[in-house]
Specification:
The protein is mostly beta strands and 547 residues long. The protein has 2 domains: 230 residues; 246 residues, no CATH class. The chain contains 7 helices and 22 strands. The strands form 5 sheets. Strands 10, 11, 13, 16, 17, 18 and 19 form a 7-stranded antiparallel beta sheet that branches. The longest helix has 14 residues. The protein is elongated and about 105 Å long.
């Protein structure tokens, strides 16, 4: 049987993700006056609170503990008093409805809704609407005594209903860059990655669709090199693979927009005798992939979090930095099983959270080219070539065209030479709409990486290039015709609402808790789900709140 005040208050909110702007959050509070009076409720207050919480499970000196982190003050804390017992009402009216709305400022300091529970770490950014039915103190007293009584008894005696809000910030990085760079204001139209290439619908260096004197920014180029030993020939001279990934030079990568990417591989064989120059079939290692299934592109999120512990920066303290799969932070954990597992499917799971990039890919492979080696100069002896950092960023490609032969890695000698071959893969990526944009707070921050993995034959001959760190923005721009959400916000809202049934912001629920440290926390630390009157008299919850 329900308690006497189970239907004294009810809360209804406008569904869907929330973006900043006037009346960003709106709803209706319904009061059953006879039950409100019978419950002793003296005031009805609605609040909007944004919080950041972190948790790290640590084991020190044989003692397991949870280190917690919260900000000194909420991200946002707004309150409205909707009704008091002193307000006169029609004696023949048993129920009244009171609308309310909250304005959310357009500020880069407000991060998106976010929730992560993975192994021994946890972090969340939550925005919650609280409806409070504040009861009168048992006896009259001073105002300070009344407030103190309410603070002590708010969770035990007062009626409280909470509703989580999915908050998505506007894309301020791209929309504000037009004032001081070559990027104009939205709406965006894709232009080719290379300024000299013809326009294409599948490329996306963003600009106006109309003709302008816009000078495109130079693209971002990430590169790495890898020395490979042929299978079962551990002491033979190595081969070399150079890899490069080119992305449009944008302040941030927007969600749900096509993004051009250009991947280049160049293989250099081990030293070969000059008799091999007219026999390209002797170029057997390393062989470049002959299709898109030889590439694994996967989106990953680097999460940094800390706690309020004094030794959080120490190795055993509360500071942590983890690389996790995109599916973990986007509420899609069932879609992919690992960051570096190669899959051949062309669906969302097999494409690593980057859209159907395999379907749109164009692959070009040049013919093997023979390059004779020059003998080393006596005045400048050759030194071993050191591979660049897997995540290095360069302003220009380091690949050598066949007309300008690259220096062989080692084993140079009179008459020896190398075969070289080049591969280019161009395609478009699309970041999923359920992905939380990157953000940074004192306790919790995120960046994204695109991981490129290309396996070659032989032991540990796997090329891995981490492209990043990358800033990701919502792709929702303030427009005068459609309001703050814009056209992209409508599509994004449908994706989030369909996914939100898994619980919490961006699809996280208690079933996602992993790691003993997170499980040992009381549910009230993380949960913001409904704890009071159901707003629907039929007993049904909205779809985005059902678990």
């Amino acid at each position: 049987m329900s308690s006497p005040h189970s239907s004294a208050l009810s809360l209804s909110l406008k569904q869907g993700p929330v973006t900043p702007g006037p009346e960003a959050i709106s709803g209706v509070v319904r009061l059953n006056l006879p039950l409100v009076r019978a419950s002793g409720i003296n005031e009805v207050v609605v609040k909007l609170i944004g919080e950041v919480k972190t948790n790290v499970f640590v084991s020190q000196f044989g003692v397991d503990m949870n280190q917690l982190g919260t900000l000194d003050k909420p991200l946002i804390d707004l309150s409205q008093s909707l009704w008091t017992a002193q307000i006169p009402t029609n004696s023949r009216t048993d129920e009244i409805s009171i609308p309310f709305a909250f304005d959310i400022p357009i500020s880069p300091s407000l991060p998106p809704s976010f929730k992560l529970h993975h192994d021994d770490i946890g972090g969340s950014v939550t925005y919650t609407v609280h409806l409070l039915g504040i009861k009168s103190p048992p006896c009259s007293g001073t105002e300070s005594t009344s407030l103190a009584w309410n603070r002590i008894n708010i969770g035990r005696s007062n009626i409280q209903i909470t509703r989580p809000i999915t908050f998505v910030p506007l894309d301020l990085a791209l929309s504000s860059s037009s004032s001081h760079s070559s990027l104009p204001s939205p709406p965006w139209s894709p232009l080719p990655l290379s300024p000299s290439a013809p326009p294409s619908e599948t490329s996306s260096l963003y600009s106006y669709s109309t003709t302008s004197t816009l000078t495109p920014r130079p693209p971002k180029i990430y590169k790495t090199s890898l020395s490979l030993r042929p299978p079962y020939a551990f002491f033979s001279p190595p081969a070399t693979i150079h890899a490069s990934v080119v992305l449009p030079s944008l302040p941030s990568l927007p969600l749900n927009h096509p993004l051009s990417i250009l991947i280049t591989l160049q293989s250099i064989s081990p030293p070969l005798p000059p008799s091999s120059s007219s026999h390209p079939e002797k170029f057997k290692f390393p062989k470049l992939p002959n299709g898109v299934d030889g590439f694994d592109l996967r989106l990953a999120c680097c999460v940094k979090l800390s706690t309020n512990s004094a030794n959080s920066s120490a190795g055993g303290g509360g500071g942590r930095e983890r690389m996790v799969g995109w599916e973990i932070v986007a509420g899609r954990e069932g879609d992919a099983s690992g960051l570096e597992q190669v899959k051949g499917q062309s669906d969302v799971s097999g494409c690593g959270g980057l859209g159907d990039w395999k379907k749109n890919a164009t692959l070009e492979i040049s013919q093997p080219t023979w390059i004779p080696s020059s003998p080393p100069s006596p005045s400048s002896p050759s030194s071993p070539q050191t591979p660049s950092s897997p995540s290095s960023l360069s302003s220009s490609p380091t690949f050598h065209a066949p007309s300008s032969p690259p220096s062989p890695p080692e084993g140079q000698g009179q008459g020896l030479g190398h075969f070289t071959q080049k591969l280019t893969l161009s395609t478009t990526l699309t970041l999923p709409t359920t992905l939380p944009p990157s953000f940074s707070t004192r306790l919790l921050s995120t960046k994204y990486y695109i991981q490129l993995r290309v396996p070659f034959s032989g032991l540990n001959n796997n090329l891995l290039l981490n492209v990043g760190p990358l800033d990701v923005s919502s792709g929702i721009y303030p427009t005068s015709s459609m309001g703050a959400t814009g056209a992209m916000g409508m599509g994004m809202g449908m994706g989030m609402m369909g996914m939100g049934a898994r619980g919490g912001a961006f699809g996280f629920g208690d079933d996602n808790l992993a790691g003993r440290g997170v499980r040992e926390l009381p549910p009230s630390y993380w949960d913001v789900t409904s704890t009071g009157t159901n707003p629907d008299p039929s007993g049904r919850q909205p779809a985005y709140l059902s678990s």
